[in-house]
C-alpha cells in the first residue's frame, strides 16, 4: 500500500463520526438520510464525511434513481490491516530477540 493511500485512510479514520459511519455500513448499504439519522447532523455534513471516506477508498457510492446508497469497501481496510500486521510482526521479532538477549544475560549472571 502506498504511503499517500495510507495517509488518506488514516486521515479518514481519525474522525469518530466517519468511524461510526463505517461501522454502520459494515451491516449493509445505507443512504445519506439513513446515515444522518442517528448522528443528529445534517445530510450535507454526512455527505462531506462520505466524500472523505470515498476518496480514501473506504466506501463506494452508488446511484439508484434519487438514492445514492453507500457501501463499505473492505479491501482498503484489508490493506491497512496488512500494513499494521507487518509492523506487529516486526515488533514481535524485536521483542523476541530482546527476550533471548535478556535470558542469555541472566544465564551468564548465574555462573
Give short descriptive properties of this protein:
Arc Repressor Mutant, subunit A; 5% strand; mainly alpha; single chain; 111 residues
Quick structural summary:
The chain has 111 residues and is mainly alpha-helical. The chain is built from five helices and two strands. It has helices at residues 3-13, 16-25, 32-36, 43-55, 74-110, and strands spanning 59-61, 70-72.
CATH architecture: Orthogonal Bundle
CATH topology: Arc Repressor Mutant, subunit A
Strands side by side in the biggest sheet:
1-2
Strand content: 5-15%
What is the percent of helical residues?
Answer: 55-70%
Low-confidence stretches: none
Arithmetic mean pLDDT: 89
Shape: elongated
**CATH level 1 name:** Mainly Alpha
Q: Identify the CATH homologous superfamily.
A: Winged helix-like DNA-binding domain superfamily/Winged helix DNA-binding domain
Largest sheet entry: 2 strands, antiparallel
Q: Span between N and C termini?
A: 49 Å
Number of helical regions = 5
E-strand count = 2
Structural class: mainly alpha
Order of helices and strands: HHHHEEH
- Count of domain modules: 1
The Rg value, from CA coordinates, equals: 21 Å
